[in-house]
């Protein structure tokens, strides 16, 4: 048996002294590990991680593949790499000093493709099932597709057959109907099933460990959370989410990775979650030097073992010269979340521009600017949005204030079905839950009235008459000047281009609203003649209403600016 303690400590020391190139998030994980070893409320028991890794290396072999020199790997024992030893050492080693129970009940691992994660998670599920059989171990391998779960389960099935266990103590079911390996021992039992993650069929499941593969592709948070909730009957439990970066920053996976990074850095305290995120260093716009071998090594801890440096350099050169290949390379090989393929905007550019200022609402009202409003009034039971837009001449910055509205009776269903963080927006103060089955337009009017009472000089409000006749009467009764603004793309293009340019120039501020960033990331556009654009949302599950309302407001600002410029020229 190998010295797993020495390997884990050697990896930690190498990361800290720089001899092992690791991502900033991995450095944070190592620092957290070292700090936690000195905590009085925690103890470290090496027995479970040591025995678990010993089981893996003694019983698990490669099913397929080749080494970098072309040598076939099928049938050869799996030898855990130092980063894999460090992860298992952490996840299974820490326990609470007062109860003796395992400390980590959840682990989030982000790693690029072809670093050996599928074989590793299959081996971990196998070993956990054997180790925890006294509790009647029940485990699941889940993914967004049946083919993905089949990959991991096939590794387990191959080793069960290779060891001849399917003809003895273990029962193996391996068909398109059911994939399960189970066994009854004198001192317990275990079962491992491979399932496609379906949030509508998982309330009755019961398990004490689960591995969610490629969770970045989960649209519905319930695809992940239902399995985590299935462990409530157990004290010794483990939920492992492992994935490569996806294409959308508006996904459940991205938000989960962001939370895990905050935990690793210490920004958020969560003693139950372990985070190991292999990502390159990125700038304020989310860009990285993907041709730099050092950055490639940060995203690929199996560098030189399963990842060929020569192939990585060649793929990076292709991505550099061929933009259509770049997004796949960034997300799959560099673990960088990219905007969805059809998205028009780079959310990173908006975020970098927004971070240049930190004005509060009180600061903005004291600027005494001229504000122009916009409203995107949806169907009665969907997202409705309002916006204010102004230009600050002192900083040469455009400012966007947005607010959303949603009927509370529909919120829970839509938040799950379309993966919209409505309740998070409500907590942030950028969304009002209408206390009814439909959106109450009076709430929209009240928001504009409240902003005016705060001191915002609202000169005009643009709207689309399609859903707005009742609302117009309310706004006019509240002494607002409302202007019809039909949703013709040739009229909205000017506002669209203005917002786009100001964001690219770093002169757009939107009060760090994550709701606005969400909507910006869902905009798809098609260029027409004369630099005009026709835009709409990416798909039926996404929303862009806050962005649309800001375009309405921006158009009103530009129209007024044009009138003032004409008046100035006439006067001159």
Structure write-up:
By secondary structure, the chain is of the alpha/beta class. The protein has 2 domains: 4-55 and 75-333, P-loop containing nucleotide triphosphate hydrolases (Rossmann fold); 347-571, Nucleotidyltransferase, domain 5 (2-Layer Sandwich), CATH 3.30.420.240. It is 42% helix and 19% strand. Strands 5-6-7-4-8-9-3-10 form an 8-stranded mixed β-sheet, sandwiched between helices. Strands 11, 12, 13, 14, 15, 16 and 17 form a 7-stranded mixed β-sheet that branches. β12 and β13 (397-407) form a beta hairpin. α18 crosses α20. It starts with a helix and ends with a helix. The relative contact order is 0.09. The model has no long low-confidence stretch (mean pLDDT 87).
List the helices and strands and how they pair.
Blueprint: H1 4-17, H2 24-36, E1 42-44, H3 47-59, H4 82-93, E2 94-96, E3 106-110, H5 117-131, E4 137-143, H6 146-162, E5 170-174, E6 179-185, E7 188-196, E8 209-213, H7 222-229, E9 238-243, H8 252-265, E10 273-277, H9 293-299, H10 309-321, H11 323-333, H12 347-354, H13 361-365, E11 370-376, E12 384-392, E13 397-407, H14 408-417, H15 422-428, E14 431-434, H16 441-454, E15 457-463, H17 469-477, E16 482-484, H18 489-504, E17 508-509, H19 514-520, E18 523-527, E19 533-537, H20 545-571
Parallel strand pairs: 3-9, 3-10, 4-7, 4-8, 8-9, 11-15, 13-14, 13-17, 15-16
Antiparallel strand pairs: 1-2, 5-6, 6-7, 11-12, 12-13, 18-19
Gist of the model:
The chain is α/β, with parallel strands linked by helices and 572 residues long. It has helices at 4-17, 24-36, 47-59, 82-93, 117-131, 146-162, 222-229, 252-265, 293-299, 309-321, 323-333, 347-354, 361-365, 408-417, 422-428, 441-454, 469-477, 489-504, 514-520, 545-571, and strands at 42-44, 94-96, 106-110, 137-143, 170-174, 179-185, 188-196, 209-213, 238-243, 273-277, 370-376, 384-392, 397-407, 431-434, 457-463, 482-484, 508-509, 523-527, 533-537.
